[in-house]
Amino acid sequence: MRPPEEQLPGRYSIMQRHTTHPRFRAFVVERPRPLPGLPGDVRGFAYGFHGESGQWWHDVVRRALTERHGPDHAAYWLDDAFEVAELHVHPDAQGHGHGRALLNALCEGRRETTVVLSTLDLDRESPARRLYRSVGLRDLLVDFEFPGGGPPYAVMGGTLPLAPYPADSSSS
């Protein structure tokens, strides 16, 4: 995902604010350097936190789930949820298990009962959607537009811990 240059300051501010959310957790995948101790090129990153009322994404998704499926459905998925806010792997590094490793690291040992996230809904068989389904996530909302316009998203959710997956799976 490559946001327009003019959106970067706003996104930086949002990401910085996310670090203050309860139980924030983040991971980075780097390409190893030939000399030990030197940082490698970032190949991917992911972060998330415990979702709660008052957080923009949480409140928007709760409203939509309540409208489409009822308050009990929304409560089941969001009352004790770990929200994956960002998970990105550089296109050159996709298909090597980095996305799976990041998602697994984010969710490992979490105290929440569910995990939820949103992902572009342009291709229901995209590598990201296949990855999320392979660990037990399912569509909660599809063709969903967040306020302010933009492309359609799918909101997906699953129970924690994540479902086991085959070691030889090729989903990114």
TrEMBL record:
GO molecular function: acyltransferase activity, transferring groups other than amino-acyl groups
Keyword set includes Transferase: yes
Entry-linked Pfam families: Acetyltransf_7 (PF13508)
Domain N-acetyltransferase, chain residue ranges per copy: 22-161
Keyword list, A-Z: Transferase
Name the record gives this protein: GNAT family N-acetyltransferase
Organism for this UniProt entry: Actinomadura logoneensis
